[in-house]
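Long-time lurker. I teach an intro course on protein structure, and each term I like to show students one example going from raw sequence to a predicted 3D structure in token notation. This year I'd like something fresh instead of my usual example. Would anyone be willing to generate the tokens for the chain below so I can use it in lecture? Attribution to the forum is fine with me.
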Amino acid sequence: MKNKILLIMAFSIILFAGCKNNKTALTSNNPFFSDYTTPFEVPPFEKIDTSHYMPAFIEGMKQHNAEIDSIINNPAPADFDNTILAFDKSGKMLTRVSNVFYNMTGCITNEKMQAIEVELSPLTSKHYDDIAMNEKLFNRIKIVFDKRNEMKLDSQQIRVVQKYYRDFVRNGANLPKDKQAELRKINEKLSLLAIDFGKNQLAEINKNFQLVIEDKKDLEGLPQGSIDGAAEAANDKKLNGKWLFTLAKPSIIPFLQYAKNRELREKIYRGYFMRGNNNNKNDNKVVISEIAKLRVQKAHLFGYKSYAAYVIDENMAKTPENVDQFLMKLWKAALPVAKKEVVEMQKIIDKEGGKFKLQSWDWWYYSEKVRKEKYDLDETELKPYFSLSNVRDGMFYVATKLYGISFTKLKDIPIYFKDIDVFEVKEADGKHLGILYLDYFPRESKRGGAWCTSFRGAGWENGKKVDPIVSLVCNFTKPNGDIPSLLTWDETETLFHEFGHALHGLFTEGKYNRTAGNVPQDYVEMPSQIMENWAGEAEVLKAYAKHYKTNEVIPDKLIQKITNSGHFNQGFATVEYIAASILDMAYHNITDTNAIDIEKFEKTAMDKIGLIPEILPRYRSTYFSHIWDGGYSAGYYVYLWAAVLDADAFNTFKTSGDIYNKELATKFRKYCLKESGDDDGMIQYKKFRGQEPSIEPLLEKRGLK
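-- Reply from a regular --
Happy to contribute to a lecture. Here you go:
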């Protein structure tokens, strides 16, 4: 997934928790019980065992509770330092273990880790509910909030006070005791259901479907790299002499694009879009129906008519109605373009003598033919120029040109799995800025998609800046023999995208955990998406797109083809995305708590907007991880909302005549990355841009005008 950066905060945005357990454990060899002594204080992965997590969570929660007790029992009148700042800096050990554990559950999980996660979940919920509904703590925070304008606080201190006060209110501090008890039960159930959803999803991707091909004729049309990768995957499963294709993107997408066997394309695509909907032990329909119902109940406790209203109240969009209007405006522009794309592909089918109507599993195959016919561009023609190492160096090159930073590969530094690269990031003057982990390839213990997270967020401690440790995780095609990992154009943009999140994390500064880098959800994707724009610029391509065998720079004719095909398939891409966003909003605009027939609900929502049968939502209900266990509930729209910002921002660079404009880059880093949490998202953007963004650059970029 192009997912948002995980910025670890001190309260409601923390994705982790502590626990209580009667087991005792020695602490002398537990890495979490003290500061790390590793280079740059990265986690000592080689010393961490699964047995270390629970004792560390126990102690972490114990310390956190002691810190809270110290705040509420302080005899001095509540003020910023002894209440707000003390709370902001609490939970250090809990943060340390959580930063590792919850990242590992996504990157390299196993049954033991999953069992720990299940055991932690209700304890997690209770621990943070206990804090959120601690009457004495809230009373002290409220005192500071009420007197914030009389305490001679600066603007950032006032903002932190306001944020924490609102956090407590939104997490139940003002509810009566009976409603607080109800909220506790809801939160506990939701935390467990999210784990169930994720476990089912992982099993559906990595265990419950595989396409095994025995007849070489069924491989016709596939690139050799895809064939070799499938053979290696089969050998790994002791299926020697066969070819194995899975639902992982590096496996399924080339198959859908190039395999001539239409029946097998349908089979693998059905395996993909039926994930979590096979009426087996990993079926997610009941799980998500229960999640949706509980979220409505939670919203009602706070006086909101729907969960969408509760969530979006914190975002730039402010109301679900504004989101719906925004999505439908773009839907009306994109759907006619998608319908034209259907016509183009059907003409090719008819011309080739195919006696069938285009179906959803045909789209990738025939859109590739359109790309070849209209733009004389074949994905296999591009891939040799986009080796993973070259693309990585290209994104580093752009960051250096824009911001002057440098990247030095580190050796002899702890890593949690082979094939992971680690880089030290330095400022132009050589000052240490942070550490960047790069985890490139799929494995069965790793969830699908791409995301950026951190093992240590940027912060402030004892009057000093804490430098971040950021991690970028992807699922790209593995190297095979002498052939390195070669990326598709979409994967190239994905790497640049996640790197944009990484830059946001690396550049973030601020004295307070609650506000440093903390932006509205519909702002989060702007720093990532703007980086995609540089990936396809001619002068950037010439710097990094080099043939993996000859080191030949990508020729001008191929660059021109990339440019000419910029609007290729944009109807499809925009429609499938908006359809998923509207499906998300439909679930979270529900106002009653009745059980949901998931299949019927999804069909009704898509029929209502006129989604054409040739296109499915980018994520169907039962595998829509973003909204059920990924933090994007009532928020999948944010990628498109942020796309307005990123298109407008990059257009500013373009129209300046210099895509590396130093003055603009300095302002963008300062206002939109470094100080992004200092004020509301639109205010920070306007500090950079001087005005609100226009939607026109986005429409032009996607060919929707």
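Some talking points for your students: The domain at 31-203 is CATH 1.10.1370.40 (Neurolysin; domain 3). The chain has 27 helices and nine strands.
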